[in-house]
Specification:
The chain has 268 residues and is of the alpha/beta class. 49% of the residues lie in helices and 13% in strands. Helix 3 (79-88) packs across helix 13 (253-262) and helix 10 (192-208) crosses helix 12 (231-240). The protein is globular.
Length: 268
């Protein structure tokens, strides 16, 4: 078995041409580097990703079928379902994704039973990298941070306030731009302002998402880079809202592989 990594694919945000380009110019060459020169060798595909909403699943299956015509089985599911499989397996639990964006669900051990809409980085995505970065930029530009932190930020990134605003409001993928500043938050996490920013952001995630399932009796499982690197603050926020974090994983990859190998029946 080998693992390759490409830029992200999101059928909700990206057009067919863009996804085809990623597969053909990014994914295929890496397969060839590992000795897979004949795409006819690809018999099954399991694709789980952000943006794989029910209405977009046929679109994504069609693209995969066009690119891998020999694949006899093509399953498409959401990144949230992949997280549930990887974190919970066949057990009941509350599942969280905290990366560039955020999401959550109540998983009954077989399927997603309830999902509070994350609403994206403008209306929601509490606790995500984009949300934390947005909060940092807002407090920075309004002068709500200590002078030393403001100085460190501009010294590291060399943006003017106008450039920041333009990148947020006029450039593509502003959520990724804002999420990039979690690196600054992490580097200064010992500062009380950054601690408050993190814990408050994660508490907002629990209040507006996890608490709405009404199942404080269930363990909370989390996946994603934000959950992984800010485990301490996430655990503190969960405890303050009456929840217990049972497991945190950076990536669902190994867990989803184990689940797919062990469970013959999959949702698609």
């Amino acid at each position: 078995m080998f693992i390759v990594q490409t830029q992200g694919i999101n059928p909700f945000l990206q057009e067919r041409q863009t996804i085809n380009h990623i597969l053909q110019e990014d994914f295929y060459p890496q397969l060839r580097q590992h000795g897979v020169d004949n795409l006819a060798l690809v018999a099954s595909i399991y694709f789980y990703g952000a943006g794989c909403r029910p209405e977009k699943m046929p679109f994504m299956r069609e693209i995969l079928a066009d690119n891998f015509p020999s694949a006899g089985q093509i399953s498409v599911g959401s990144d949230l379902l992949a997280a549930a499989y990887a974190l919970c397996g066949n057990n009941e639990g509350l599942v969280c994704i905290l990366g560039t964006g955020s999401n959550s669900c109540y998983y009954d051990g077989k399927k997603i039973v309830a999902n509070i809409s994350p609403l994206g980085f403008i209306l929601g995505d509490e606790g995500s990298g984009a949300y934390l970065g947005k909060t940092l930029l807002s407090r920075l530009l309004k002068g709500e941070l200590p002078d030393a932190l403001i100085h460190d930020f501009y010294n590291e990134y060399h943006y003017t306030p106008d450039q920041i605003i333009e990148k947020v409001y006029r450039n593509p993928m502003p959520n990724r731009f804002m999420a990039g500043f979690t690196r600054f938050i992490s580097a200064h996490r010992h500062e009380k302002e950054m601690q408050c920013l993190l814990v408050d952001g994660f508490r907002s995630f629990f209040e507006r998402n996890i608490c709405l399932y009404g199942r404080p009796d269930l363990p909370v499982q989390a996946i994603g880079s934000i959950a992984f690197y800010f485990e301490k603050e996430l655990t503190e926020a969960a405890f303050s809202e009456g929840y217990c974090i049972e497991k945190i994983m950076k990536s669902p990859l190994q867990g989803i592989i184990e689940y797919l190998l062990c469970c013959p029946k999959r949702d698609s």
